[in-house]
Fold this protein.
Amino acid sequence: MTEDRTPPAQHQDQQPGSEQQMRPHPVYITDRYRGAGKLKGKVAIITGADSGIGRAVAVHFAREGANVLVSYLNEEEDARVTCAAIEAEGSEVISHAGDIAERANCQALVDKAIEAWGRIDILVNNAGEQHPQDNLEDISEEQWEKTFRTNIFAMFQLTKATLPHLKEGASIINTTSITAYKGNPVLLDYSSTKGAITSFTRSLSINLAKRGIRVNAVAPGPIWTPLIPSTFGADTVSEFGGSTPMERPGQPAELAPSYVYLACEDASYVSGQVLHVNGGTVLNG
């Protein structure tokens, strides 16, 4: 996973982007990762699970024995690949397409999981979107609201819908970002939502501690996912990850084990924390 440095120049015209069109394809799991039954018998809901980070987390969870509900927006082909990979690990999978910025879709995800498996043990709030703009004046109110609705409003809505079914020992994991800690000059609205996610994670962890439900987050740095070529121009993509101390983007497979750790009993005394997986950038937060 470390042979290639930055990716070749490329661009996709539509978000959330297609993993099938990326060159090289992201690495979402390797033979080096050996499951140990850490999530055996558990049920997980993962948003944005058709590709990228969500796919990697879903397949790693499956390798650890979990059944997975794959939530995604509209990338049907990517979702089929993810579902097939989960089934190949011997786990059950359900997929659900729809915009989680709409409250009814959040409730539908929860209802599907309960109908199929009768329980929910892990919620991974991972879906997100970003739209670069050079200046604050270039960000419309519509864009600002849309980014917040997808990245943080949906997280609130889905967590609220899931909570009645979470029992002691359950785990909620939110995907925040390095941008919440160091900012990004062209991702003002995205970075703001990620800061909100970090604060939501910390506050909710305290709120749910007495119920025995852990809440944590992962803050990725530059990870090679479809969101990158569908967000940035080809020249920017060709330099992606090059400014990290490791001088390369990370692969989803290098990120997913941190979600496994936070989901399983190995992290039974961990809540309100953020794991930074970012290629060596030192952050104090």
